[in-house]
Design goal:
- This protein is an alpha/beta fold and 307 residues long.
- Helix content is 24%, strand content 25%.
- It has 9 helices and 14 strands.
- The strands form 3 sheets. A 6-stranded mixed β-sheet has the order 5-4-3-2-1-14, with helices on one face.
- It starts with a strand and ends in a 7-residue tail after the last helix.
- 42% of the residues are buried.
- Residues 47, 128-129, 141, 169-170, 173, 193-195, 199 line the site of 4-methylsulfanyl-2-ureido-butyric acid (CDT).
């Protein structure tokens, strides 16, 4: 099987609060069709792609909360996306809020094969923001109120001729995310994100959002010899400006494609997965060079405050 994968990051511009899922699915299908004309085999869509980024608001009514979640995938509303993708022979990765039959609420990303079947599901591990409403903020970031962390942790799957992993938004800021998948030989990490440019706890970081976005993903790619394909929801959504800059990063750490708008835009790159070996068998030959006898604290302690 060919080890060259043409991949797309399907960036979305803003999704308003009253925009229907049907309308969003139409936009996703539009990106898929563009991807097909550019010969993509796989398209990555953003985190929580089907709705506006609802954790910016505090909802108390459980019914109102669950209305933001999907209890089946595909559903009657998302089926057209699966059908169009399989008719085009393109795989995709989609982020959405998931309500499981057992009542768990997860921030989820799935990987769907070229035949429209779900290959893998990932539940976001690092849940940022706060657990309770904080009225002093100009907008909320209540992910820790709405979502449980994924209990399964990270995974990799054999697909598209390589070893594929997934991470969601805040996961990309943590080196452990990449390293756990790197230890399983990951060759392409798919990531959806929603990053408000304003960071209320420390606004000095606002001007650095773009720098930090690239910094963490370029480092993670290089230090683990993997591609990273990152798709944003960008632009001014319900008064909150979100970072766009969807990008595709090579195992060298170089950005090989990047969005230039804050709206719906497909960013593509031809990725030779054999490029990963240049890094996995030299500087980052883990079996040869990692000094695991000194890494114990990484899993023994959460931080300096832990005993
Ligand atoms: N969606 C998401 O994880 N966003 C976070 C914002 C951090 S500030 C609460 C991110 O890391 O981009």
């Amino acid at each position: 099987m060919s080890r060259v994968v043409t991949v797309g990051a399907g960036q979305l511009g803003p999704v308003s609060r009253n925009e229907t899922r049907e309308a969003v699915v139409e936009r996703l299908v539009g990106l898929l069709e563009e991807a097909s004309s550019r010969r993509c085999q796989l398209v990555v869509f953003p985190e929580l792609a089907l709705t506006t980024f609802f954790p910016r608001w505090y909802f108390e009514d459980p019914q109102e909360i669950d209305a933001w979640f999907e209890s089946e995938m595909p559903s009657s509303v998302t089926k057209p996306l699966f059908e169009r993708a399989s008719s085009l022979g393109i795989g995709f990765s989609l982020g959405y809020a998931e309500l499981t039959p057992e009542g768990h609420h997860y921030n989820t990303q799935i990987l769907v094969g070229c035949d429209g079947d779900v290959i893998a599901k990932y539940h976001k591990v690092h849940i940022p923001g706060h657990e309770k409403p904080e009225p002093w903020r100009p907008f909320q970031h209540l992910e820790r109120y709405y979502f449980e962390p994924g209990p399964e942790g990270f995974g990799v799957w054999s697909a598209f001729g390589g070893v594929i992993g997934m991470m969601i938004c805040n996961d990309r800021r943590w080196p452990e995310t990449y390293r756990v998948m790197g230890l399983e030989g990951v060759e392409m990490i798919l990531c959806g994100y929603n990053t408000p440019i304003h960071y209320a706890p420390d606004p000095t970081q606002d001007v650095l959002q773009s720098f930090h976005n690239a910094l963490v993903m370029q480092s993670g790619a290089y230090q683990n010899g993997t591609f990273v394909v990152a798709a944003a929801k960008g632009g001014l959504e319900e008064g909150v400006d979100a970072l766009a800059q969807s990008c595709i990063i090579a195992p060298s750490g170089q950005i090989i494609a990047c969005a230039y708008t804050t709206g719906d835009e497909l960013v593509t790159a031809v990725c030779d997965l054999d490029w990963c070996d240049h890094y996995k068998t030299t500087l980052f030959d883990f079996d040869r060079y990692r000094m695991i006898e000194h890494y114990g604290p990484i899993t023994e302690k959460r931080g300096p405050g832990s005993r």
